[in-house]
Amino acid sequence: MPELPEMENYRLVLCRQLKGRPITEVDINREKSINKKTEIFEAHLQGAVITDIRRRAKHLIFQLNTGNALLLHLMLGGWMYIGNDEDNPDRTKQVILSFGERKLYFIGLRLGFLHLLNGKELKEKLEELGPEPFDPSFTLETFQKRFGTKRGTLKSILIDQKFMAGIGNCYSDEICWQARLQPARKANELKPDEVITLYHAIIPVLENGIKFGGYIVNPIYAGDAKTGGYNNHLLVYDREDQPCLRCGTEIRKIEISSRKSFSCPNCQV
What we know:
By secondary structure, the chain is of the alpha+beta class. It folds into two domains: about 5-125, N-terminal domain of MutM-like DNA repair proteins, CATH 3.20.190; about 140-265, Orthogonal Bundle (Helicase, Ruva Protein, domain 3). Helices cover about 30% and strands about 20% of the residues. It contains seven helices and ten strands. It has helices spanning about 5-20, 40-45, 120-125, 140-145, 155-160, 170-180, 190-210, and strands spanning about 25-30, 50-55, 60-65, 70-75, 80-85, 95-100, 100-105, 115, 250-255, 260-265. Strands 1-6-7-5 form a four-stranded antiparallel sheet. It is globular. About 40% of the residues are buried. Monomer.
């Protein structure tokens, strides 16, 4: 599932290619992927201009000049591709937005969604999400206070979208490896200096994820050489039986609350 770096990579690409462009055509091939009747959804989007594209947690928000917004969550298996009638993946497209000859294809939206919302609805939809890791207000003191109320495993806390928005399976393991902590450790077992180390591991890991295009490999457009590049820079995630990049010990895979998790049994405590 795309996480914060993957969605930020999408945001940056889509801003460069689609921001300020009017929607000239809307094709809905699966009504369950949207939240309104097809004819209503199409009528609201026809001619609307994307004035901005923002990210909140694992969502993208396409702000429209009408005052409405499109809220996207790709969930498991969802992705997007910018192309045209001659250049597009040979996959079922649930939604297609056209911008003249250029088209944005939404693929794999079986669990994901693209919802048309007004300002109030958008706020309500996102209000339960926790703070953004890159928000200046998400300070060490804020993290310590929020973390101090938790009793679960590090893995379950880091992927809890109400605790902190945007992190999932991959980057929770990457953060724990960077902090030299086992993802199965209980929060109330951590020493104060370990909590500080955990906090300071978050931003560098996410920044690297964004820098190298995230770990989801599907390209966003023809010739896209960046997306998925973080696969070549993974610290621990999906590296079972490979040597730890820090100490050489074989990485192991375990399950934590039915989620796969990767860690080094030697240098993570």
